[in-house]
Amino acid sequence: MNFNIKLGVQSYSLRKFSVERAFEEISKLDLKYVEVFSGHVPIKMEYIESIKKLCEKYGLKILAHGVNHIPRDETFMKNLFEFAHKLELEVITADPDPDAIDLLDKFVEEYGIAVAIHNHGPGHRYATVESVLKVVSDHSRLIGMCLDTGHLARVNGDVVEAVNKLDGRLISVHLKDVNKEKRDVVLGEGVVNFEGFFKALKERNLINKVVMMIEYEPEPENPIPGIKKSLDYVLALLKQLGIIS
User: Fold this and answer.
1) C or N: which end of the chain has fewer Cβ atoms within 10 Å?
2) How far apart are CA 77 and CA 177, in angstroms?
3) Quick one: which of 75, 148, 136, 141 has its CA closest to 113?
4) Is residue 193 helix, strand or coil?
5) Contact in structure between 39 and 15 (CB atoms under 8 Å)
6) Mean pLDDT for all residues in the chain
7) What DSSP line would sit under 59-115, residue for residue?
């Protein structure tokens, strides 16, 4: 599929599959980008070469890895960023301890790899856009948010408002939808205003910059139909909005 946006799949959607099977299924969708989680790609240097070979085999590029808890530990951070650098990532999706964020300034600038703080829904320390902005406001512009649209809906947040508030702090997106009962559904079948969301990204010239990953959590034994329906919905909407042809 040939378009100039960073659209792919979070491999957690295929968590019951091996990493190779997950990559194979994503490549069948005619997508070239993926975000991986540690269940598929542990943060260990010895995995890098084999994962790069799988990427080459299936025509995929890993843009992001997460969600990773980041404590205030420079040795841990150094290892994480070295791993991310060798895997040629753009983004580390993260749940950093608040007291770790000042140390991240040094690493994001040194490596040129962004850290995107992921919201995890009701009760989480980063449940809202405001909670993320509060901890990143005085730090590097490479530290921002991975906006999970489904979890945002669970705290009654608005995705259009989120784009406008975050602006340059919006680094990546997990595209999810939920119904009125807050349960995960196929994209386009729930309450998230994706039309307004993509329009806002386009208006703010973020549509080609932000890393966007479909994350379909239901039916882990057989997620392919739900992922495919979600992708078809997103592509149809992007065409309708004139973002892709």
Assistant:
1) C
2) 32
3) 141
4) coil
5) yes
6) 97
7) T-EEEEEEEEEE-S-HHHHHHHHHHHHHTT-SEEEEEE-GGGHHHHHHHHHHH--EE
* 67 prior amide bond cis, ω within 30: yes
Q: Which two tokens stand for residue 227?
A: 């992922």
Task: Kindly give the pairing relationship between strand 61-70 and strand 143-148.
Answer: unpaired
Phi, psi (degrees; rounded to nearest 5) at 31: -110, 155
CA-CA distance, 244 to 237, in Å (whole number)? 9
In the beta sheet, which residues pair with residue 178?
Answer: 184
- Give the separation between CA 7 and CA 3, rounded to whole angstroms: 9
The model's pLDDT over 53-82, given as tens digits with 9 standing for 90+, comes to: 999 999 999 999 999 999 999 999 999 999
Cα R_g (the chain), whole angstroms: 17
Please state the φ and ψ torsions of residue 238, each to the nearest 5 degrees: -65, -35
Going 67 to 73 to 76 to 78, the CA torsion angle's sign is positive
